[in-house]
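W.,

You were right to be curious about this one. When I first looked at the sequence I had no strong expectations either way, so I just let the prediction run and decided to look at it fresh. Below is the sequence, 305 residues in total, followed by the output.
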Amino acid sequence: MKGYIKSIALAALIAMGVLFFSVRAVAPSLPRVVGRPVIEETHRFSWPDAERFVLENHDGTIRIWPHAAQEIAATANVRIYMVRRGEDGTAATYAETLFGATADAREVRVVTEPAERPDLIEVRVDYDVFVPRGTDIEVMSANGNVHVASGCGRVNIEGRNADIFVRKPQGMVTAQTTNGRIDVVDAPDGARLQTVNGNIYAHMLGGAVSADTSNGVIVAHLLDPRVNSAELNSMNGGITLVMDERCSANIDARTMHGGVRSDFPVDTSSGVRRHRHLRGKIGEGHTALSLQTLNGNIWLARGRR
């Protein structure tokens, strides 16, 4: 009974912390869009091919696709709103300063709103970007989801209020957001994934994967024996790790308030087998697995591609 009461108290404390964070830290950064935009326009850009494309954007969705052309091309759909009517001239003047860009053979860098945004103006810029296959991608997005389609190189995304989706990259993936989920498919060279309020989904073909969330579930698929390690941590959420039959692992799985289940036979002769803690070896023990959650179950499941 005491343990049950402690769990309720801990959950309530965490919920209060999340509420405080959302109200004091997140809410002031959210856009105050009111009514129809006073300015709505489309800008098109192109640059020569470069090794890396970097984009900084405050408000708006970002979608990036590889294409066959040897250039980087972008379309920016701009909407500018006035929180209070009567200052359309200010909006028009600011619209002329929305984009800053530098380009050379190594990097194309685009900065949205390089100047400080005037009071009483809200801006949303949605990007569609096309890059040559294998181009490395770096994105900073404050408020807006980020989609990276199949065929890009290394991917590095930092978000705040953003869902992040990465499909079949050719290199390492690093993705971090505060309020949003992360979904990575067929990463060949590892991934580092972190969010505070959101779920994490990762399909791995190789390298090492680390995934951390405070309030959300983690579902990871190890699709190939080339995955070296998986370190998965959640505060309030379950962890499911689906492992291909060809894989083997050394596993250490712990939960404070939940249970640990494995569909694979686990050799615990030199380890631990308890309801909330499982440490042992599966097969040859190639992949190092560390799975930890405070409030949630852990399931090591069989899977096939």
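Here's what jumped out at me. The chain has three domains: 1-30, 32-153, 181-305. And, maybe more interesting for your project: Residues 18-31 have pLDDT under 50 and may be disordered.

Coffee later to discuss?

I.
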